[in-house]
Every structure is written in C-alpha cells, then in structure tokens.
Design brief:
Layout (H helix, E strand, L loop, with lengths): L16 H16 L5 E3 L9 E2 L2 E4 L10 H27 L11 H6 L2 H17 L1
Parallel strand pairs: 1-3
Antiparallel strand pairs: 2-3
Length: 131
C-alpha cells in the first residue's frame, strides 16, 4: 500500500522540477519537523545535487566496481519512486488533470487540484485498510 506524501503543491505557472523542489523540501521539513536527508527524483530532473543539506538521488546504472549490496541498495531506492509514478498517472486520468487547453493564469486555478486528488487517494487507501 502506498500513500502519497502530504507535500503536494499546486503552482501558478508551468515550472521545471529544479525550480519547485526547494519549495517542496521546505514544505516537507515543516510537516515532518526535520529536514529530509535524501530525495529521490526521476531522470528528467536537471538541477542541483544537494539542496539545503538534502542529497538528491537520481536513478542510474550501477557501476562495475559496485558490490552486490550497493547495486541492490541503489535499485531499492529508485523502486519506491517508480511505484509512485503509476499512482500519479492514475490520479491525472481519474481527476481529469492530464491536459488543460485553457489559456492564462486562470487555467492553473481551475483545473489543477493535486492536493484534492492526493487527499482522495489517501482517503481511499485508509478506507481499504479500515474496511
């Protein structure tokens, strides 16, 4: 069972991941009470490898010199990220957030409701656990 993080944020513009990650990490720090030591991003992330003491991990091929333990550890870290990707895709299709053809700043206010979608997903997961 996978629960989405509470750090879901909607932005007023179409920003690249490297510009939104510091804000997300601040939000995570506020909600957890301490900063995250590591953050796993997808291969499309192009930005700093460390933000305010948080190490950014990107999936990549294992090195030849890596031991079996190191290879498995790298693979396991990136599997969690890959599991969330499919959930995000389903949320986009279920809550009609895939593509928006409106123009201007109002399009982001009208059609992007990621926090409501994340709440709905988490509520559904809790109901499955309870009942």
């Amino acid at each position: 069972m996978t629960f989405l993080p509470s750090g879901v944020v909607s932005h007023g513009q179409n920003l690249h991941n490297s510009h939104t990650l510091p804000e997300i990490l601040r939000h995570v720090e506020i909600s957890r009470g301490k900063a995250a030591r590591q953050a796993v991003c997808d291969r499309g992330y192009r930005g700093k490898r460390e933000i305010n003491g948080t190490q950014i991990i990107l999936p990549g091929k294992a090195l030849k010199k890596d031991t079996r333990y190191q290879k498995d550890k790298k693979r396991k870290q990136c599997r969690k990220r890959a599991a969330i990707e499919s959930i995000i895709g389903h949320l986009k299709s279920d809550y009609r957030m895939a593509r928006n053809y409106l123009k201007g700043a109002i399009r982001y206010r009208l059609s992007h409701q990621p926090s409501e979608a994340a709440c709905a997903w988490n509520l559904k997961q809790w109901l499955v656990v309870i009942f």
